[in-house]
Amino acid sequence: MAQYRESYHEKRVLVTGGAGAIGTNLVRTLCESGAALVIVLDDLSSGYRWNLPAARNLMFVQGDVLDEVKLKRVFFEEPQVVFHLAAFFANQNSIDHPEHDLMTNGMGTLRILEYSQLAGIERFVYASSGCSIYGSSAPLPLREEYMSMNLSTPYQITKMLGELYCNFFYNNYRLPVVKTRFFNSYGPGEVPGQYRNVIPNFIYWALQGKPLPLTGTGEETRDFTYVEDIVDGLLRAGYFPQAIGQEMNLASGEETRILDLAHWINELTDNKSGIQYLQRRKWDTKSRLLASIDRAGQLLGYKPGTPFKEGLANTVEWFRLHWSDIVASASFQPGMSSAVRGADEKKGQPVLQH
Ligand SMILES: NC(=O)c1ccc[n+]([C@@H]2O[C@H](COP(=O)([O-])OP(=O)(O)OC[C@H]3O[C@@H](n4cnc5c(N)ncnc54)[C@H](O)[C@@H]3O)[C@@H](O)[C@H]2O)c1
Description:
Layout: H1 3-6, E1 12-16, H2 21-32, E2 37-42, E3 58-62, H3 68-76, E4 81-84, H4 91-96, H5 98-119, E5 123-129, H6 130-133, H7 154-173, E6 177-182, E7 185-186, H8 198-207, E8 212-215, E9 221-222, E10 225-226, H9 227-237, E11 247-250, E12 256-257, H10 258-269, E13 275-278, H11 294-300, H12 308-321, H13 323-329, E14 343-344, E15 349-350
Parallel strand pairs: 1-2, 1-4, 2-3, 4-5, 5-6, 6-11, 7-10, 8-13
Antiparallel strand pairs: 9-12, 14-15
Helix pairs in contact: 2-9, 5-7, 8-10, 8-12, 10-12
The protein binds nicotinamide-adenine-dinucleotide.
């Protein structure tokens, strides 16, 4: 086993948002790597118990990152490494519920940082969003030094706010913080829903033989990153000392057209219903997303290894294996069960994220 993975053996690790799409994959890997204890703090607002592994070294605490009683409970276990993944997800959700977004992503992050600093932890890894914080006019590929003051949703603002608080705790208290910026994670573990990403939602519609709702022209591109590659980047960020105080993109470094994505998913699922074109979402101002992963390569030795079509096939396989749990958990507004009605008719807002 690589040294950075071995370093988690016998470690005590706290994962906030550990029952979520990325968190469950991270938690599973940490449990399997022989961590002494993996503590999950999650309020299950968009995470699921059934998605967590049954492991003897896993402790699950259901609660809000703002709940001081729950925070005392999880920090009583003396975590050495904290992965802060809990967040109110994502763009459209934050437009519909901006104050909730600020409380969880802003105040929640501040509170986890405060407890981490008081507890004297060894490493704090923050889940930032490269899809969010660069704005829409940055040159491609997106590099870490670029800054934008023109963000288009509350979620984008609060993911940036979390980074700014991380900087404060690093500069003021020398808290060993690392800021990882994810780009469009996909893979096993993400349950579809009104506020979820395009890939799980496309697979969900496709497996029901419905047309895939495409918000835009289909020429838009995204940098889709397989969740196992994100988990690998997180484990590295929690280990390598040169990452402390730094921010780095965790992405695939490859661009995929949404139209190609839709065709591949229809092929993989044998869906004959094709594509349904819908209006572009007002806040979705990014026609292309592509990240530079040079810095993560230099600082962490990060090298994403999963070919896109292989990752998609694994994701479809996961859907087939867990179909009844997924159907029971997928949350769409009433009247959104058909991809033809893949837009919120009242507000004229399409339902897919990113
Ligand atoms: N998925 C992506 O493409 C992507 C891209 C960029 C950044 N990120 C960031 O990565 C992190 C994980 O994303 P994800 O895709 O796994 O999202 P997710 O919604 O699946 O996971 C977030 C988890 O946090 C929990 N949570 C929400 N509010 C909480 C609260 N107040 N207290 C405790 N728990 C709470 C949810 O129940 C959920 O299990 C988030 O911080 C997100 O902003 C994700």
